[in-house]
Design brief:
Helices cover about 80% and strands about 0% of the residues. By secondary structure, the chain is mainly α.
Length: about 400
């Protein structure tokens, strides 16, 4: 639904920043666990392999639960839903900080994961509704930027706290950030301008459209190559490029800077011309992934490739979000949430495909090249989807004439 002049917030920056802070907290909670797994394993007397289920359980919770959360809360206003989701997030992480055992910690992680997909899906719709049509992708990129900045600043900070004071204090920090974000959206989101919630029947009906299903598939496949490579980026840089683990940490910060720049630029380009931006950035991503296999043999080239991979990988994200949203303008809540679920399923499948390549005769060096093929497959699906849109528009014009 396109916002009318009465729907558009006169000053959207502050509520958008509040939503971005929520995204920062959620992004920090998702990824910081990886840096404190050894501390958790030692404190709770659990193996590293079993603590890895804290990551898997969270991702599955995001992918599988988010659509059901949206369906069960379809009658709530969007502001009220976002506030309740952040309240659940804060409670989940507070429970994690107080967890007396592994089962309680896993329960807390799954509880917190219930907010992730549905929050990002609804927040994208709310952000797009607070600005004029020509700035929708920029508004979505503001939300995504919160998660990308979490990777640059929040995750290293949370990991440092966990190493210095214990892993429980990491979750205390996440809880504090989440509480601040909760207060922010409760006070700053313009409740009187929220678009009324859609009926569950209409939301489910949107999923039956072939173009909606195709757009979700495009989103998942295009981003599959990113996850396929990013999962194994540290081993590539250490084993092939011969960087030390300490150097890899700083290179990943550079990747995060590229992510932030790409997210901003992608949002601006998508507002300019969505389809050319989508095709162009995806093509750049495919080339970048393809070149990474060759660049991994040179330290300077590898560093440049990692930065560019950050730029292109998250440059495409606001484009994909708005692209999916446009396919279900009359019922965007469930569809945008399904897009988040699709990306998390893509995360799991990308890591699995990368593992298959590593175990094959091609090995670790060829993972980015195969990831490029996955992204190119996404481009083909995208071109097919755009062609169908063009054909449908021409048909509508002929009918109207």
């Amino acid at each position: 639904m396109k916002p009318s002049l009465s729907d558009v917030s006169p000053s959207p920056l502050r509520p958008l920043l509040a939503l971005a802070l929520c995204a920062f907290a959620i992004g920090m909670a998702e990824f910081v666990i990886m840096g404190i797994l050894p501390e958790i394993a030692a404190d709770l007397s659990v193996s590293i392999a079993n603590t890895g289920f804290l990551v898997t359980g969270y991702s599955l919770g995001v992918a599988l639960a988010a659509p059901f959360v949206i369906m069960l809360t379809s009658r709530l206003s969007r502001k009220k839903l976002l506030v309740l989701l952040m309240l659940l997030f804060v409670l989940g992480n507070a429970l994690a900080a107080a967890a007396s055992g592994f089962v309680m910690l896993m329960t807390a992680r799954i509880l917190a994961s219930l907010t992730h997909g549905s929050f990002f899906g609804v927040a994208a719709v709310v952000a797009a509704g607070m600005v004029r049509t020509e700035k929708r992708a920029w508004a979505v990129s503001m939300i995504v930027s919160g998660a990308s900045v979490a990777n640059i600043a929040g995750v290293p900070f949370g990991t440092f706290i966990g190493h210095a004071f214990g892993w429980r204090f990491t979750f205390v920090a996440v809880t504090a950030v989440g509480a601040a974000a909760l207060i922010g959206i409760a006070r700053l989101l313009p409740g009187n301008r929220n678009i009324p919630p859609h009926s569950l029947r209409r939301e489910l009906g949107a999923l039956g459209k072939p173009q909606v299903v195709l757009s979700l598939l495009v989103s998942a496949v295009c981003f599959g190559g990113v996850f396929m490579t990013f999962t194994y980026m540290a081993p590539i840089l250490e084993q092939i490029t011969s960087f030390s683990p300490q150097s890899v940490s700083w290179i990943l910060v550079l990747f995060g800077i590229g992510v932030t720049l790409g997210n901003y630029g992608g949002g601006r380009l998508a507002d300019w011309r969505l389809n050319p931006a989508l095709m162009g950035i995806t093509a750049g991503l495919a080339v970048c992934l393809f070149m990474f296999s060759a660049a991994a043999g040179s330290k300077p080239a590898a560093v440049v490739e990692v930065f560019l991979l950050g730029v292109f990988s998250f440059g495409i994200l606001p484009c994909l979000t708005v692209y999916v949203m446009n396919k279900a303008m009359e019922a965007p809540n469930l569809v945008t949430t399904m897009n988040v679920s699709a990306l998390h399923i893509s995360n799991a499948l990308g890591a699995w495909l990368g593992g298959i390549v590593i175990e094959s005769r091609f090995g670790l060096p060829m993972v980015p090249m195969f990831a490029s093929l996955v992204t190119m497959l996404g481009m083909m699906l995208m071109a097919f989807s755009i062609a169908l849109d063009s054909k449908r528009k021409k048909k509508d014009i002929l009918i109207s004439d």
